[in-house]
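Page 42, continued from yesterday. The earlier attempt failed because a stray header line got pasted into the input along with the sequence. Redoing it now with the clean sequence only.
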Amino acid sequence: MNIPRLVIAGTQSGVGKTSLTLGLVAALSRRGLRVQTFKAGPDYLDPTYLAIASGRPCYNLDGWMTSEAFVRELFCRVCSDADVALIEGVMGLFDGADPATLEGSTAEVAQWLDAPVALVVNAHGAGRSFAATVHGFCTFVPEIRIAGVIANRCGSDRHADWLSASLSSASLPPLLGAVKRGALPELPSRHLGLVTADAKQFSQAVLDQLADAVEAGVSLDKVLQAAQGAPAIVEIFAASPTLTISNELRLGIARDDAFHFYYPDNLQALERSGCELVSFSPLHDSALPPDLNGIYIGGGYPEEHAQTLAANGAMLESIRQFAAKNGVIYAECGGLMYLSQGIEMLDGSRHPLLGLLSVWTRMCPRRKSLGYVEAVLTRESLWGQCGDRLRGHEFHYSELTSLPEDCERAYALHYRRSEQPVAEGFQRGSVFASYAHLHFASRPGAVAHFVSRLKSSIP
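This time it went through. C-alpha cells are written below.
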C-alpha cells in the first residue's frame, strides 16, 4: 500500500503540534485532498478537532495500549481511500510509557509505519542553537527519519532565514516552514486540556485562520514531498478489514455534550461483531431507545452538565428500569460518575443521578489520575475470564467518596507508576463500571466475550 504519510511531532509538549497539524489538515483539504488523520497516544480530545478539520473520523495509534500489528492494520484499513495521512504526535517525539525505550511514544508509531517525521521546534529566542536541538533529535534514534523541521513562534522572515541557514550549515533536514509568533489562533481550553471540538467553538472561520497561518509560513509542497517520501507499507489485516453490520444486537451509545469519549475503532469492532449502535442522549432524551440488549456510557463532562442530567428524571428512571431487567450496562469514567449516587461539586453542592452504584463521586481541585493502566481480570466479567488482560488509560478529576461495598471487584488495575495493583472494575449483576478507558478493539477475545453477554441479555 503506497500512502503518503507524515508524523507531526514536537520536541516537547506545548510547542504547537495540535494547532500546526490542524492548519496543515485544513490547508491540504482546501486543495481538495482527502486527508486521513491520526493521533498518537490515548488522547480523546485532539481527535475531535482533527475529525472536524478533515471531515473524516480521526483514530488513535497507541503502541502501549495496542500492538504493532493492530496499529498497522488500522492504519492501512482507514487510509484505503485517502490521499495523504497526517499523524499528530503526543508530548515530545521520544516521550512515552517508558524512559528507556520507545514504548508508547510517537517515535514508536513512526517506526512501525515507516513514516517520516516533521519536527516542530519552538524557535522563540533561538539562533544556531535551533540546529543543535534538531541535531540531537536526528541522532538520538537514527532509525527515526526526520524529513523536515517546522519552526513555530518565529520572530520574523529574517529569523526564519537564519534558522534555515543554521540547519543547512549542519547538513540537517530542511526547514519546511516557519510560523510567526501570534499567527495561530488560540484554541479554547478547560480543566481536562482542550475542549472537545464542536461546530460552535471550532467553526469554519477558526479553521480558515489556522489554514491561512500555516500556508503563510509553511510550504505545503515541501510537506507533501516529505509525506510522499514514505515507502510502501505492507497491508496486513489482523482482524476483519470490512465493516459488516448485522442487526442481531442493539447497543445504546450515550452521545451528547456530557458523554462522548469513545475510540471509533472500539465502536467499529462492536459493529463488526454484530452490534447495531443506537445513539441516545442522557441530557435530552426522555427514555432509552427500544429493544436494546445493552448500553455503553463513555467518558465526557458529566460534571459540567450535572444539574441538567439530574433534572432529567425520565431518562434516569428509564435506565434504572433497564438495569432492573438485567440489561447490560457498561460505563467508563464519566459514565461511572453517572451510575453513582450523584456528583458532589467543588462548592459542596450535590446533584443526584442514577444510584446504580452505592457511592457518590466528588470533584477534586486537582487532577486525580492520569496515565496508562493494565486491567487484569480477577473474575469472569463483561470483558473476559479471570486472568485475561486489557489495556487502557485513566484521566479524571473526580473520585469515589468510598468504595461500593455491594459490588464485586473484577479488575486488578496496574498503574505504570505504582507496583501495587488496585482492586477496581465495579460489577453488580449486569452493571459494570470503571474509571479506566479500555482499548478493547485490540483484544478481539474481549469484544467477543462482551457480545456474548449482550446475546444473553434481555431481547
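Notes: Residues 238-245 have pLDDT under 50 and may be disordered.
Reminder to self: strip header lines before submitting.
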